[in-house]
Amino acid sequence: MNATDNDTTMLQVSGIEVRFGDQRVLHDIDLKVRAGTTTAIVGPSGSGKTSLLRVIAGFLVPEHGEVRLHGEDVTSVAAHRRSIGLVAQDGALFPHLDVAGNIAFGLPRGTSRRERHRRVTELLELVSLTADQASRRPDQLSGGQRQRVALARALARQPEMILLDEPFSALDAGLRESTRQAIRDILRITGTTTILVTHDQDEALSFADQVAVLKDGRLRQIGAPEEVYTRPCDVETAQFLGDAVLLPGALTSQLPGQLTGKAGAVWDSTTPLGSVNVELVCPNLATAHLTVSGAAGQVMLRPEQITLSDQGVAGTVLSSQYFGHDTTALVQLEGVEAPLRLRQLNAVPLAAGTQVHLAVQGSGVFYPAFSDCRACSARPVPVSIETRGATPMPSFL
Ligand SMILES: Nc1ncnc2c1ncn2[C@@H]1O[C@H](COP(=O)(O)OP(=O)(O)OP(=O)(O)O)[C@@H](O)[C@H]1O
User: Reduced to 3 states, what is the DSSP secondary structure of residue 360?
Assistant: First the structure.
């Protein structure tokens, strides 16, 4: 950690490995969380999210690796000695205590009666609960209200960091969104450093400043929400974070000034929808294989990048689904095996059989068919690269 990191990094976990018996549930986990920010750890069920949260909270000591808070090694420090609050999936409120009692429970021992009253009133206000609600028991509240009480209780100790373990998953869709927004606002107002664990991609993208994608016990990608959504590091991550349109492609030319196939390089790629600007995103790509014009692979676009255009490529609508705010359609292009999905805002559904013309807006991401990515690809699949007679360009590894 350098001096600049020390100024802003609140949490740093490095090289974390966790095993349960023979099962390795986390490995090579490196994550930095800056003070005052919100990080979402998102991944499918069983990917190790809760285990990682437990390591950070101090309920689980990893086999390898270390956890640092403000630069201090706390790997073996007990949970109650770390200034970290935890909000569980169901809130874990005490059923026999009323709301005020639950919140007061979070206050340090020895807090005077007057101070308790002041803090509880302050916290009730912070989480927008009324004095009337303060005297109710948890079973007399809605799910969203219960989660706000749980947050107030966790904030009572004024922890440096709050960990949220799937706190919205028991709520129905509408309540889930409003509670999420309310809790996000509270955490912003209080400047609390937060880590949210969720399996819900939309939740992760809308809640956090930084999203960490966990798969099979490994962090595949860490970045800003728009970064991981628009430039996911591999196909699996792209599909996990939202609908992905995958088209066969081949690199044709690099744009001026682009010398290598390293991450961030922009190329043109052929696709069934015409030429598309694509980016090579994986920071771990061994570039030697990509500095060959004609390299084959897949171009990833998001459905909202596919638009109807008179000048576009012809296709036939197979089906359409109406969601109110947007409409999706599956369109079959001639010569392309899998139908592709497009998403239109505020549009009426397209009838099956309708002929449409499609074009691409913006740039895509290129995943080479040859992948020897050590960090991201669980199973590297070497395939031959079609070079189309191009001369390999020098690699600048
Ligand atoms: N105490 C334990 N003993 C043995 N195995 C465990 C234990 N806790 C978790 N596991 C296993 O570790 C793996 C990761 O579990 P974890 O709960 O961390 O995943 P998760 O991503 O939070 O899953 P979910 O979203 O379903 O809660 C799973 O295969 C789980 O069965």
Answer: strand
Residues 252 and 205 in one domain: no
**CATH of residue 117:** 3.40.50.300
Q: How far is the CA of 121 from the centre of ligand 1 (A)?
A: 38
pTM reported for the whole predicted model: 0.83
> Is residue 352, in this structure, part of any structural domain at all?
yes
Between 352 and 325, the higher pLDDT residue: 352
- Nearest protein CA to atom 2 of ligand 1, as residue: 20
Domain endpoint, select from 230, 250, 274: 230
Claim to verify: residue 283 and residue 352 sit in the same structural domain: yes
| Same domain membership, residue 179 and residue 306 | no
Backbone φ and ψ for 174, nearest 5 degrees, come out as -65, -50
- pLDDT tens profile 321-347: 999 889 999 999 988 888 999 999 888
Q: Is the CB of 199 under 6 A from ligand 1?
A: yes
Q: Say whether both 114 and 258 belong to one domain.
A: no
Same domain, 207 and 324: no
Residue 239 structural domain: 235-368
Nearest in space to 52 (alpha carbons), one of 71, 70, 78, 30: 30
**pLDDT tier, 156 (very low <50, low <70, confident <90, very high otherwise):** confident
Pocket test for ligand 1, best of 25, 41, 203, 219 (most atoms within 8 A of CB): 25
Residues 208, 302 within the same domain:
no
Here the tokens at position 167 are 């706190």
CA distance 86 to 100: 18
How far lies 365's CA from each of 176, 230, 359, in Å? Answer: 32, 8, 16
3-state secondary structure 261-308: CCCCCEEEEECCCCCEEEECCCCCCCHHHHCCCCCEEEEEECHHHEEE
Q: Is residue 390 part of a domain?
A: no
Number of structural domains found in the chain: 2
- Rounded to whole angstroms, what are the CA distances from 136 to 95, 141, 154? 10, 7, 19
Residues facing residue 270 across a β-bridge: 250
Given strand 23-34, what is the order of strands in its sheet?
A: 23-34, 9-20, 64-69, 72-73
Q: Does residue 373 fall inside a structural domain?
A: no
* Same domain flag for 168 and 186: yes
Any ligand 1 atom below 6 A from CB of 198: no
Which residue matches tokens 């991981």?
Answer: 228
Give domain status of residue 119, yes or no.
yes
How far apart are the CA of 26 and the centre of ligand 1, in A? 10
